[in-house]
Amino acid sequence: MQVTIRHIFVSPGHNFVGRFGQEPLDHEARDLDEIECVAGKGLAGDRYFDHEENYKGQATFFSWEVFQEMREAFQVANCPPSAMRRNILLEGIDLNALVGKTFTLQGVEFAGTEPCKPCSWMNTAVAEGAFDWLKGQGGLRCRITRGGILSRGTCALEVAGET
Fold first, then answer.
1. Based on the number of CB atoms within 10 Å of its own CB, is 2 exposed (0-12), middle (13-18) or buried (19 or more)?
2. Residue 49 confidence (pLDDT)
3. Quick one: fold of 2-10+44-162?
4. CA neighbor of 12 nearest in space, from 85, 115, 61, 80
5. What are the two backbone dihedrals, phi and then psi, of residue 158, each rounded to the nearest 5 degrees?
6. Which residues in the chain land under pLDDT 70?
7. Which end of the chain offers a freer environment for a tag, N or C, measured as fewer CB atoms within 10 Å?
């Protein structure tokens, strides 16, 4: 099936992790045209690169369609895609269908490990109520099982099977 990689984000640091009850930090999410995906480690330059062995969130995906629906639901047209704090915004597939599946994009192979759960910070980053609204549609966490370069644009997504 054809999908479109709309954005690729990496951030050198955490804005929300470990910050409960405090103000978020301000580590920018850099929007890249392409990224090196390293098998077993993650995305080069990202805060979770080589985080821990067999880490379930070496790359995270978020649905472009869900992002657009959320902006409309909360009337936050100026909310940037980087506010989701996910690495790859993908258009054209239900990401929940990739949980437990191995899939390939541009020669890079991912294993869909589990859904991303939204965090309460979404009420700050997007709008009050976004945390509850995003439950069940917070994205996809993946391991990278075969590395390569991933670039923005339209490409084939091939599902290989169960992980």
1. exposed
2. 85
3. M1 Pyruvate Kinase; Domain 3 (2.40.33)
4. 85
5. -115, 125
6. 13-27, 161-163
7. N
DSSP state of 50: T
Identity of the amino acid at 162: E
| Residues ≥6 apart with Cβ < 8 Å to 46 | 10, 11, 12, 87
- pLDDT, residue 11, reads 85
Is 5 in contact with 88 (CB distance < 8 Å)? Answer: yes
**Closest alpha carbon to 60 in 37, 33, 87:** 87
The Cα-based distances of 20 to 82, 84, 105, 115 in angstroms read 20, 17, 35, 22
Going by C-alpha positions, the residue among 116, 107, 115 that lies closest to residue 145 is 107
Q: What are phi and psi of 64, to 5 degrees?
A: -60, -40
Q: What pLDDT sits at residue 162? A: 64
Say how far apart CA 26 and CA 137 lie, in whole Å: 25
User: 29 exposed, middle or buried (CB, 10 Å; 0-12, 13-18, 19+)?
Assistant: buried
Closest CA relative to residue 59, chosen from 123, 137, 127, 150:
150
The model's pLDDT over 86-100, given as tens digits with 9 standing for 90+, comes to: 999 999 999 999 999
